[in-house]
Amino acid sequence: MKIYTVFVEPKTSGNIGFLARTMKNFGLKKLVLINPCKLENDAYYQAMHARELVQDAMIYDTLEEFIEDKKITSIVGTTGTAGGSYNIKRIPITPDELGKTMHVNGNIALLFGREGDGLNNQEIEQCDILVTIPTSDEYPIMNITHAAAIIFYEIFKNKKSYPIDDMDISSYDDKKVLTNLTNEIISKLDYPEHKEKQVKIIVKRIIGRAFIAGRESQTLRGTLKRINTRIKNKTHEE
C-alpha cells in the first residue's frame, strides 16, 4: 500500500513544513502539492527533521493530473463539514474507521484542502471516501496539521499484515469502469435528475469504501455488464 499525502493549493509554505513534520512522525514519506504557493525557507524550517519530504515533494498543477499519473486506486478526502442523510456528498467516516479499512495493496491519495477553505465541492465529489474528525460544535474546524496528526495516527496504529498474502486491490481504472457501468445502468432507471445524481454519488462512495479486491472487481464488472445487456434487450423488446 502506498499512501500519498496530498495538500491541495496550500497558501502558506510554513504549513507545508508542518505537514511534512507530522507525516514523518507516522512514517509517511510521499508528499504531494497541488498548485502550491512558493516554497519559502519557513517550509524547511518548520519541517525540522522532515526537510527531505519537502525537498522531494511531488508538485502538480491539478489534482486530476496527479491521480492519472500515479494511478490512484482510492481517493480519501478530509472535511470539517460533515454531511448526513440530506447531504449525500458529505457523508463521512471517522479516522478510526478509516484506519481499520486500509490493509490492502494499492495507491491511496489522502487529500487535505486549502487552509480555511478545505476541499471544494468538485474535489469532494471525486473522493471515494470522506473522513471527518468529531469536534466540539463551538469550534469544529481544526488546523490542517492537527487534523492530519489524528488521521495519520489512526492509520499508523492499525497497520498490520493483511490475512491474505499479496491481495491486490482493484486499480483506479478498474473502479472507474465499475462506476461508469453502474452509472449507465442508473441512467436507464428513470430517476428524476437530482435523484439520479445522488444515487450515482452513493454508489461511487460504496465502491470507494469497499476497497474491492481485483478478482471481486472483475466478477462485479461481468455482472454489471450482464444487467446492462438485459436492460437493453428488454427495452428493445418493448
TrEMBL record:
Ranges for domain tRNA/rRNA methyltransferase SpoU type? 3-153
Q: Which UniProt keywords apply?
A: Methyltransferase, S-adenosyl-L-methionine, Transferase
Record flagged with keyword Disulfide bond: no
Mention one GO biological process in which this protein takes part, according to its record.
tRNA nucleoside ribose methylation
Tell me, what's a Pfam family for it? SpoU_methylase
From what superkingdom does this record's organism come? Archaea
Q: Is S-adenosyl-L-methionine among the key words of this record?
A: yes
A GO MF term: RNA binding
Cellular-component GO terms for this entry: cytosol
- Protein family: Belongs to the class IV-like SAM-binding methyltransferase superfamily. RNA methyltransferase TrmH family.
Protein name in UniProt = RNA methyltransferase
